């Protein structure tokens, strides 16, 4: 379904903010905070989902609890011009890549990788480097999260089987 353009006002922003802080907050609780009935909040939340403003609801889990004990960001440098859709095909084949984006600057893409341990990370890196259009990679291991409540600090998928 194609998102439909709809007005986005201050009440919508407050609803989205409340759901981002805790997606399990009831419509009644949100309504009490922003001055709307639970029904009005639900109607607005449904519209925000229908128009693509709200794309889903997830649980944030400690990565270590799922077996992800090693984390890194990997800059990817391509040979020539690698189209974003080709890069997207490659990263979809690696469940350890939890986020990927094309970027400005020297690198062509930036990957967020989670692995069980350093050996697993090295194996993932080697699988990425095998792609014929990838010229080089530069990795940055994450030591700690300075904003532990950020979505990047959590995980949304279990570690792959060994």
From TrEMBL:
PROSITE patterns: HTH_ASNC_2. Keywords: DNA-binding, Transcription, Transcription regulation. Signal peptide: none annotated. PANTHER family: LEUCINE-RESPONSIVE REGULATORY PROTEIN, TRANSCRIPTIONAL REGULATORY PROTEIN (PROBABLY ASNC-FAMILY)-RELATED. Residues 8-69 form the HTH asnC-type domain. Gene3D superfamilies: 3.30.70.920, Winged helix-like DNA-binding domain superfamily/Winged helix DNA-binding domain. It comes from Streptomyces ortus. This is Lrp/AsnC family transcriptional regulator. InterPro entries: AsnC-type_HTH_dom (IPR000485), Dimeric_a/b-barrel (IPR011008), Tscrpt_reg_AsnC-like (IPR019888), Tscrpt_reg_AsnC/Lrp_C (IPR019887), WH-like_DNA-bd_sf (IPR036388), WH_DNA-bd_sf (IPR036390). The lineage of its organism: Bacteria, Bacillati, Actinomycetota, Actinomycetes, Kitasatosporales.
